[in-house]
Amino acid sequence: MSPSVIKILSGALDAIAERGVRRLSMSDIIEASGVSRGTLYRYFSSKDDVLAAVAEFVCIGFENGIREAAEGIDDPIERFRQVMQFYARYTNENSPDRVFEVEPRFHLSFFRSRFARYKLAVHSALEPTFKYIEVKLGKTINAIAFVEILVRLQLSTLLVPADENWLMLWNESADSLEKWLLETADQTV
After folding, report:
1. Is the pLDDT of residue 127 over 80?
2. How far apart are CA 122 and CA 144, in angstroms?
3. In this predicted structure, what is the pLDDT of residue 19?
4. Most buried residue, 45, 63, 67, 171, by CB count within 10 Å?
């Protein structure tokens, strides 16, 4: 993706947060991104084209980021910790304040249309962790359900913003999982 396109998409995200999708114009995107009209129209012919690209840009950013957060981490609990911390950070950094107040229909449509991709990205990143849990417990777990719960929990912070207490609980989840896992595994032996 060219630097100009990234600049346009980042600017469009800022403009959406400020104006909402319905009131957003190509001029708003130009102003927020700091590119010329010619540059914007070289890549996008309409606001709808920009919005579709923004949605894909955010989703790909999440998928790449979650994969990178897990990459090269052999310890399954540390892998879980890094994925959880990335997810919280990404959600916080890429969700402007009042995101649903400004443009609820656009954001709900975005999350609903990409929910399966978010789940797949988290599942792929945590697959070694799930295998570790299954070995420790000596039985199969429902990793798909576990991932769905994680994704739904994190997305809920867009409706009810995470406070320090929630962030602490979320970031300590790896330690809680490991403690529960070890206690449960000891009871089944």
Report:
1. yes
2. 10
3. 81
4. 63
Helix (H) or strand (E) holding 72: none
Q: What is the mean pLDDT of residues 83-106?
A: 75
Is the Cα dihedral 95, 76, 131, 176 positive or negative? negative
Tens digit of each residue's pLDDT (9 = 90 or more) over 40-51: 999 999 999 999
Q: Give which of 118, 97, 106 is closest to 162, Cα–Cα.
A: 97
Q: What is the pLDDT of residue 132?
A: 93
Q: Token pair of 185, please?
A: 């595994």
- Answer yes or no: is pLDDT of 165 > 60: yes
State CA 37 to chain mean position distance: 31
- Contact between 143 and 122 under an 8 Å Cβ cutoff? The reply is no
Cα distance between residue 40 and residue 129, in whole Å: 43
CA 132 – CA 75 distance, rounded (Å): 9
Write the DSSP symbol of residue 46.
Answer: S
Q: To which residue do tokens 């769905």 refer?
A: 148
Cβ atoms within 10 A of the Cβ of 118, count?
22
Q: What pLDDT, in 10s, does the model give residues 5-15?
A: 999 999 998 88
Whole-Å CA distances, 26 to 51, 66, 110, 186: 11, 31, 20, 61
Residue 152: CB atoms within 10 A of its CB come to 12
Taking phi first (over 0 means left), then psi (-120 to 50 degrees means alpha), and beta for anything else, what does residue 36 get?
beta
